[in-house]
Amino acid sequence: MKQWSELTLHEQLCCTLSDAYKDAHGIRPRFMNFQEMTIEDLNREIEICVKVIEQNYRDEQDAEKDAAVKFEQHVTNTICMGARDRETALRWIMDASHADGDWDYFCYLNGLPYGYFRKSA
C-alpha cells in the first residue's frame, strides 16, 4: 500500500472524491470511472460534494433546532399534565422512551443535538 505522498495527484483526488462523495451521499461512488476523469473533472465533482456536505450540515442544524423546540414543548406539556418540575418531566419522558436511561441515545432517537441534556438540564 502506498503512502499518501507516494500517490499521484490524480490518485489523491480520486481518494478525496470517494471520501467526499461518501460524506455527501452516504455511499461510495463505485459507479464513477475515476480513471477516465481528468484532474478538472475530479476537482469539479469534489466541489459539488463539498456544497452538498455544507447543505446537509445546515439542514441537520435546522432539524436539531426544530427537534429541540418540539421537545421543550413536550416537557412543558408533561409538566402541565402533572410533573412537578422539569427534572420530573424529564424522568417521566425518559421512562417512557426506549433509551433505557441513556441520554445520548435519547438525543439520537429524538433528533436532538448530541449532549443536549448536558447543556440544558
Can you characterise this structure?
This protein has helices spanning 9-25, 39-80, 86-95, 103-110, 116-120. The protein has 121 residues and is mainly α. The chain has one domain (7-120). Helix 2 (39-80) crosses helix 3 (86-95). The model has no long low-confidence stretch (mean pLDDT 95).
Could you provide a short overview of the structure?
This protein has helices at 9-25, 39-80, 86-95, 103-110, 116-120. The protein is mainly alpha-helical and 121 residues long.
Please give the structural blueprint:
Elements lengths: L8 H17 L13 H42 L5 H10 L7 H8 L5 H5 L1
**Main beta sheet, described?**
none
What structural category do the secondary elements indicate? mainly alpha
Task: Give the averaged pLDDT, no decimals.
Answer: 95
Termini gap: 49 Å
The ordered H/E elements are HHHHH
Q: How much is the radius of gyration in Å?
A: 22 Å
Secondary structure: number of strands: 0
| Poorly predicted runs | none
The amount of helix comes to 55-70%
Gross morphology: elongated
Estimate the strand proportion: under 5%
Number of domains: 1
Our count of helices gives: 5
Tags for this entry?
single chain; 121 residues; mainly alpha
